[in-house]
Design goal:
53% of the residues lie in helices and 12% in strands. The chain is of the alpha/beta class. α12 (261-271) links the parallel β8 and β9.
Length: 436
Amino acid sequence: MKAQIVNIGMNHETAPVELRECIAADAGGTRKILDALREFPCVKEGLFLSTCNRVEILFTSEEVEDAKKEIIALLSDLGQVKDSAVSDCFYSLEGLEAVKHIFRVASSLDSMVVGEPQILGQIKQAYQLATQEKTSGVIVNRLMHRAFHVAKRVRTETGICESAVSISYAAVELAKKIFHSLEGKEVLLIGAGEMAELAARHLVNNGVSSMMVANRTFERAVEVAENFDAKPVSFEEIDRELLKVDIVVCSTGSREPVIYFEQVKKSLRKRRNRPLFFIDIAVPRDVESRVNDLANVYVYDIDDLKGVIALNVEQRKKEAVRAERIVQEEVLKFGHWLNTLSVVPTIVELRKKADAIIQAELKKSSSLMEHLTDGQREDVEVLARSIAEKVLNDPILFLKGRAERATVDTYLDIARRLFNLDRNHGVKYGSKSDDT
């Protein structure tokens, strides 16, 4: 039985942010997941993807049902939730459906914001970690490189990225809806990652009067602030900034909230009933959920952005049709490659046998070639390899051409018998048994 490609996960459409943030993992958690995958006997290769909108494990297995149970239990354990509580939120895709899914994810066709650019970078990071932790192999390596190729085709052959809006863009659009205009408004940006930088750029373009940037690493806050003529502040100064700002945009990678109920409640006494808006685009969320219960305080999380994102949906849909055609084309190509995997070991052995015969015959003829120069001996070896390649070319093409047929095993058996690939390893090339 050959290994199947399987994808198990949840995203913004199948699970609420409260559940996604439980199962989302930082770099340390991701390594723990990959360590566990490496130990599962029913999993051959694996990759773990955790973003603000999805948590997925892509893996290969010959025992799919057993592997799926192990994976769901692993994800449930990560989020410290019961299997029964989350089972309905998981999707499970197998074979070419799983291939199509990862191609669509990489191309940002499965994102909350179709065409947003961040997801491809996140997938590349997940793959890089899988290679470092040695959980990827032949199939996952090929699949991910093809996913990157598909994403590049979609980006260059369609206008889907031009018509897209990012999560950060949507956050700023929401702020504009709340205040009608951002001119004269003061903003505190908590977090200095890529999402925060994008939000800062949109805020500046929409005329905010001043912006503060807070980050746990102050040097990073200074770096981002310099790019946008903003003021860097430390995490310890957040309480003071809450007294005067109008909007707080949160986008950190913290596992715990960075804004708490009591903290905001205390600031309200000195704000004189001025409204305070929090736009929380982090997963797990940065703002404690109870903050939304306070008077004149409004908290919007990443799931609240769905309505804003829908504004450009029609244009994105038109471009998505072209993108989906590219994805389907590439899925078929990958399916053809998968089907040829069954003939690869036999082809490799054929070439190894030919190489061994060449080496054995050159060694037997070494005394005859003593008078040749190094260049002439090299020419003889090249000639021998060229003849072997031409002899093997037709059998190899024949096997590749039958790779997707139900009778491929019969053809493989015949090829192995014809070329004596399953003989005892003790028999030397060039012996009488090779001539019979």
